[in-house]
């Protein structure tokens, strides 16, 4: 028989789509009170009706707005999931503003949210920080020159946190997926071709599989911390050398 959960309240960012939405539903099923952070009112409302999640309408870059809406709430679990992959193109072809967008949303926002909620967790000696990393943060991929470093930075941030949090009982877990079938590529690949290019004919991981892994990681005894877990489709592998012939 599993131990009763020591946690009561979770906050999940990027709750309106994909992995975040599936995680909100799963954590609600586990009996947690879940605050769902997102920008789209209609999706938040629909999620609230589906599973009882409490909507927090905010851009993830606006830490103050999130903190203000969660004032007085003792946050036990923070799932930093919101992320973007704005364009899939070579680094010399992307808009310079996209560099800022990916660093701001994928790296700085989770760091600021962590900074905001961590003192309460440390004081209570109760907390679990979960981050959605990416295989793109563990190895180089073409056309991910800004996304990859944003996720690599997040990964090292997790390791740094674990050093600072020794003795506090606050856990830090980085979930590192390969290809998951979501809307992540909606702006990265032109004219809604993502479905055909990335998913049709493949067997991609589904958001509910990642949500189940997050739930498992949370449910483990408090003295067990899954620091990092990489999850690939069975049909996907990274690595290998690429070389091209130079042409004048
Ligand atoms: N799908 C994959 O293959 C894959 C692989 C590895 C890692 N990941 C990571 O998994 C996480 C979840 O992505 P997903 O695949 O589930 O993609 P998704 O379906 O596109 O979901 C991303 C979520 O993040 C939200 N978001 C983006 N920018 C935001 C902002 N500024 N403020 C508030 N919310 C914002 C989106 O809301 P809006 O609709 O309002 O933009 C959406 O709810 C990301 O961190 C991603 O990098 C995904």
Q: How would you describe this structure in keywords?
A:
single chain; 248 residues; alpha/beta; Rossmann fold; seven-stranded parallel sheet; 7 helices; 15% strand; globular; binds NADP nicotinamide-adenine-dinucleotide phosphate
CATH architecture: 3-Layer(aba) Sandwich
Q: Compute the gyration radius: what is it?
A: 18 Å
Output the number of helix runs.
7
**Ligands (ions, cofactors included):** NADP nicotinamide-adenine-dinucleotide phosphate
Q: How many extended strands?
A: 7
Biggest beta sheet summary? 7 strands, parallel
Please provide the ordered H/E string of secondary-structure elements: EHEHEHEHEHEHHE
* Total domain units: 1
CATH level-four homologous superfamily name: NAD(P)-binding Rossmann-like Domain
Q: Helical residue percent?
A: 25-40%
Assembly state (oligomeric): single chain
Topology:
Blueprint: E1 9-13, H1 18-29, E2 33-38, H2 41-51, E3 54-57, H3 63-69, E4 77-80, H4 96-124, E5 127-132, H5 147-164, E6 170-177, H6 194-199, H7 207-219, E7 228-231
Helix pairs in contact: 1-7, 4-5
This protein binds NADP nicotinamide-adenine-dinucleotide phosphate.
NADP nicotinamide-adenine-dinucleotide phosphate is lined by residues 14, 16-20, 38-40, 59-61, 81-84, 105, 132, 134, 177, 179-180, 182-184.
């Amino acid at each position: 028989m599993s131990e009763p959960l020591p946690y009561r309240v979770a906050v999940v960012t990027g709750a309106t789509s994909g992995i975040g939405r599936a995680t909100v539903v799963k954590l609600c099923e586990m009996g947690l009170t879940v605050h769902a952070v997102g920008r789209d009112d209609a999706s938040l409302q629909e999620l609230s009706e589906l599973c009882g999640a409490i909507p927090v309408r905010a851009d993830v870059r606006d830490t103050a707005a999130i903190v203000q809406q969660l004032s007085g709430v003792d946050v036990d679990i923070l799932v930093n999931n919101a992320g973007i992959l704005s364009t899939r193109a070579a680094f010399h072809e992307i808009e310079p503003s996209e560099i800022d967008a990916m660093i701001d949303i994928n790296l700085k926002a989770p760091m600021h949210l962590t900074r905001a909620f961590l003192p309460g967790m440390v004081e209570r000696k109760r907390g679990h920080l979960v981050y959605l990393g990416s295989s793109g943060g563990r190895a180089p991929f073409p056309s991910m020159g800004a996304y990859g470093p944003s996720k690599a930075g997040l990964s090292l941030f997790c390791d740094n946190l674990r050093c600072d949090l020794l003795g506090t009982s606050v856990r830090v877990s980085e979930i590192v997926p390969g290809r998951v079938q979501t809307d992540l590529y909606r702006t990265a690949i032109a004219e809604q071709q993502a479905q055909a290019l990335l998913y049709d004919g493949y067997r991609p991981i589904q958001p509910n599989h990642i949500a189940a892994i997050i739930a498992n990681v949370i449910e483990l005894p408090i003295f067990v911390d899954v620091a990092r877990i990489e999850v690939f489709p069975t049909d996907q592998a990274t690595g290998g050398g690429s070389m091209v012939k130079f042409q004048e």
